[in-house]
Amino acid sequence: MTDKTNRKAYEPNNLVVLTGNTGSEAEEYESSRTGDKFVALSLYTSNNYTDDDGNLQEFDSTLHNIVAYDPVVMKQLLSYKSGVRLRIEGKLTYRPFEVEIDGKLVEKKEASIVAKKVETAVLPSKQKASEETNSEELETVKQDQM
After folding, report:
1. Total structural domains in the chain?
2. Among 62, 85, 95, 136, which one is most buried in terms of CB atoms within 10 A?
3. What's the CATH code of the domain at 92?
4. What is the Cα–Cα distance from 43 to 67, expressed in whole angstroms?
5. What is the pLDDT of residues 16-56, one digit of tens each?
């Protein structure tokens, strides 16, 4: 069966959650094939570690293509500036394209994430520091009430 109801039931099997920083501001485009509008942006992810001297080291940066077709998500993505940290939920898709290699056209595929939900995200170290500060403030309030 290929009706939309059945396909929608399977979407949770293709769920991607990605957190990273926007590489550029989102841009709105129009499909040359269908005329449908969509928004696209790049999202960078990287792995970090703290070296023996306590310095934060970044390695393995990866660029991800994010697209959105839902009007609400499109508007949301267009509102973010470059460098904003986002948490994106969506599904992984592949777009075929052709390149010429040694005089022959070869079909390749480019991965993109179709965003279904977008929210701003906080770096884990900043979130932990914020939680610790809130915990300390709560403890101070409890002590003052005694």
Report:
1. 1
2. 85
3. 2.40.50.140
4. 10
5. 999 999 998 999 999 888 999 999 999 998 887 788 898 88
